[in-house]
TrEMBL record:
UniProt-listed InterPro entries: Aldolase_TIM (IPR013785), PRAI_dom (IPR001240), RibuloseP-bd_barrel (IPR011060), TrpF_fam (IPR044643)
CDD domains xrefs: PRAI
Family affiliation: Belongs to the TrpF family.
Enzyme class, spelled out: isomerase
BP GO terms, sorted: L-tryptophan biosynthetic process
Keywords per UniProt: Amino-acid biosynthesis, Aromatic amino acid biosynthesis, Isomerase, Tryptophan biosynthesis
Domain N-(5'phosphoribosyl) anthranilate isomerase (PRAI) residues, every copy: 5-199
Protein name in the entry: N-(5'-phosphoribosyl)anthranilate isomerase
Pathway assigned to this chain's UniProt record: Amino-acid biosynthesis; L-tryptophan biosynthesis; L-tryptophan from chorismate: step 3/5
Gene: trpF
Length: 203
């Protein structure tokens, strides 16, 4: 099975085209308040659609109101929604009525009854991330081998130098990177993006 590759924190048309040309399967556009990589729905829509129809466009949200998420996702024309934070199962279910959902988990969430319920909803896929998303700190993959959910995505401190080790340890359905692909906050490094996609494909 080929591992899917998402380049998150896309903030410009230039970087969207760069990631698409490098072979990324998905682009992440962050709408979370306070993020140094936050973009407007208009920028996300232009950049995401320019990347082409085969590249998924993922809107990233953190503890935002349900209607805000749905309105922003519609305005940005995203094809999936990534949800961070302690939102309710009802909230996740409602978002999943309109968009496929990547529900972000921390290691301490694994096996919790409420989270198992959420992951049983149609259209919801788990993504395991570090406690501080975007912080560049990897998870302890060896400690997660026995509990990593089947079909889950993996994030948290991934980059060209460690993505192969992470894939071999956990066999995720997809991998997601932000900080280690940048030359500055919100500005992608062409060399790192290309190297990350190539390494993930080669794994």
């Amino acid at each position: 099975m080929t591992v899917r590759v998402k380049v998150c924190g896309t903030t410009s048309l230039h970087d969207a085209l760069l990631s698409a040309e490098a072979g990324a399967d998905a682009l992440g556009f962050i709408f979370a308040p306070g993020s140094k990589r936050r973009v407007s729905p208009e920028v996300a829509r232009e950049a995401g659609l320019a990347a082409g129809p085969v590249v998924a466009r993922v809107g990233v949200f953190l503890n935002q109101g349900l209607m805000d998420v749905l309105r922003t996702a519609e305005a940005a024309r995203v094809s999936a929604v990534q949800l961070h934070g302690p939102v309710s199962s009802l909230y996740v279910r409602e978002v999943a009525r309109y968009h496929p959902v990547l529900r972000v988990l921390r290691p301490t969430d694994l096996g919790q009854p409420d989270m198992l319920e959420v992951l049983s909803f149609p259209g919801v896929t788990p993504m395991l991330d570090a406690p501080e998303p975007g912080g560049g700190v990897p998870l302890d993959w060896a400690a997660l081998r026995e509990v990593f959910p089947a079909g889950a995505w993996l994030a948290g401190g991934l980059g060209p130098a460690n993505v192969v080790e992470a894939i071999r340890a956990l066999r995720p359905a997809g991998v997601d990177a932000v900080s280690r692909l940048e030359q500055g906050p919100g500005v992608k490094s062409p060399e790192q993006v290309r190297a990350f996609v190539q390494a993930a494909r080669g794994a």
